[in-house]
Write a structure and sequence with these properties.
A two-stranded antiparallel sheet has the order 1-2. The protein is built from 3 helices and 2 strands, in the order αααββ. By secondary structure, the protein is mostly helical. It is 37% helix and 4% strand.
Length: 111
Amino acid sequence: MSTDDKRIREFAYQIWESEGKPEGQEARHWEMACKLAEAEALAPRKSPKTAVSNAAPKKTGDAKLGPDKTLNGKTAAPKTKAKPAAASKIIPPGEKAVEKKPRAARKPPAV
């Protein structure tokens, strides 16, 4: 068995697993796996040196964090994570978008 056949077999197995292990779909999975393996073979490859250099953090020169937690005399901004796109904006085909009404402001409790 050649390396290509092994790779196609791996792809076909992954496709079969991802679809919930259906029976009777071997030919379709094999065809899909062949296309994936062909695309993978035609894709440009990154050299190991390039992959390592891209993973290394970039140096910012003379930037140093002082004892007062400032960066070159400026206060460092807090790190925040990017928020994912709202799942509520994704509407499956055939379904209507339901607009939510804004909530009314709460009244302060009576004292």
